[in-house]
Fold:
Amino acid sequence: MRKIVIAGNWKMNKTVAESVKLAGEVVAAARDIKHVVVAIAPTHLALAKVAEVVKGSNVKLAAQDVHWENQGAFTGKVSADMLKEIGVEYVIIGHSEQRSYFGETDETVNKKVRKVLSLAMKPIVCIGETLTERKEGRLESVLTTQVNGAYAGLSADDALSTVIAYEPVWAIGTGVTASDDEAQEAHAFVRGLLAKLYGDSVAQSISIQYGGSMKPENAAGLLAQKDIDGGLIGGAALKADSFLGIIAPGEALSK
Ligand code: PGA
Structure:
């Protein structure tokens, strides 16, 4: 059965020294977590140092982005090989901030997903609608395009190594969370899209995280939903105690 996966997306926060400190606190806080998969995604700059901190713990290392080419003249980018070498297991791909500020498209998401899978890392594929898209009744068409784009050409085996993060853009960093029902409805729709592509049993095995102002106060309600299998956490992941406040209800539900 699918697992609850809770990943902290630190975005452009924390120096290397601060990242090492926070990673150590997360490792300590998550010491007794046995059922939830816990991951943290510091900046690229801090990954190598944080890798040393999480080594041997039950906290997995995640990266915030990757380039799809192996190497070459791509100023500012890092390759999947580079991430793999230092022990990265999960890579966040297609985050709405990448899509809106840095020109990420469904096509580049697909290229990155394939590259990450080819090196046996797990992509966390981010999808989600803007407020305008939701208001205009385009939620389902947006999610359909994003899922079909991200999974284009992927086999069922490939798909089983992915995680999806459904993040309504209007809930990211705003303090506004989708209600339990709104989130569940979108998650069920996304699982239906996966079922169309790969059949029901594969779709039932893929973890779909919720993201967007998830915090200790709303985590239990969201995680209790049938199709919500974890969270991609921004702001609340920047402190070990609030991050643990999201992981703990997930652990309780998984027992
Ligand atoms: P937030 O960010 O928890 O701060 O809303 C979530 C995300 O962007 O992954």
In short: The chain has twelve helices and eight strands. The domain at 5-254 is CATH 3.20.20.70 (TIM Barrel). Residues 9, 167, 172-173, 211-214, 232-236 surround 2-phosphoglycolic acid (CB under 6 Å). The chain has a mean pLDDT of 97.
